[in-house]
Amino acid sequence: MTAPAHPEGAAGPATRPWYVSAGLALAAVALLLGLAWGAARLRSPYPFYGTAYPAGTQAAPFQGVAVQGGAARPFAFTPGAGGQATALFFGFTHCASICPLSLSYLNKARALLPAELRSKLNIVLVSVDPARDTPARLGEYVGFFGSGTGVRIPEPALGQVAQAYGVAYQKAELQGAAYQINHTTATYLIDARGQLRVLWDYTQLPQVERVKADLQYVLETP
Questions:
Q1: 111, burial (CB in 10 Å: exposed 0-12, middle 13-18, buried 19+)
Q2: Is the pTM of this model over 0.85?
Q3: What is the dihedral of CA 95, 96, 102, 105, to 10 degrees?
Q4: Mode of pairing for the β-strands spanning 51-52 and 196-200
Q5: Which residue, among 170, 148, 149, has the nearest Cα to 158 in the 3D structure?
Q6: 163, 168, 214: which is closest to 60 by C-alpha?
Q7: Disulfide-capable partner of 50 in 14, 31, 99, 198 (CB 3.0 to 4.6 Å)?
Q8: Contacts of residue 38, Cβ cutoff 8 Å, sequence gap at least 6
Q9: Are 187 and 169 spatial neighbours (Cβ–Cβ below 8 Å)?
């Protein structure tokens, strides 16, 4: 004769009321969110809309060619030079959507800044398509959306600059059409001391008021 699995009167495994389990789960989620918030505040005391860089992250300098004074001239980017902040974006002029939208939103956010701060922010586009983007084409393209600088950097220097900013890009052949470039879509905000402060993905840029708030804080707190 086989004994029953749970003889009458024997104590089974203790069961936890559902509301206790739910409470513990909520507490765990709250703890994780609190830790994430604390980590973000340790990285930056200001609640940036974009992703904040650790303090002291130096931006990389680079050189290329850009239209300046109506002609293509050597262009040297020294982060923070002249006490200027820079919104730096990597893209290309044949881009169908992300690049033009990014430049449009960045110019809109800058236009919302107090007048005394607007002149302290540069917008720089580095082309990831140097084979097609001439300095003249880049200058015209960037100028269409507002003021800014379009920079052409030939390979292999372009690859080294992109790597310094964590940017990836790759040529994508299209059947029956010209090629496109798949690339990282972030914009990097560099302060007047030449340090990387905030990164925005292009999906964040439509929130121009929040981007403007990040810009204003960095411009006022270099």
A1: exposed
A2: no
A3: 150
A4: antiparallel
A5: 170
A6: 163
A7: 198
A8: none
A9: no
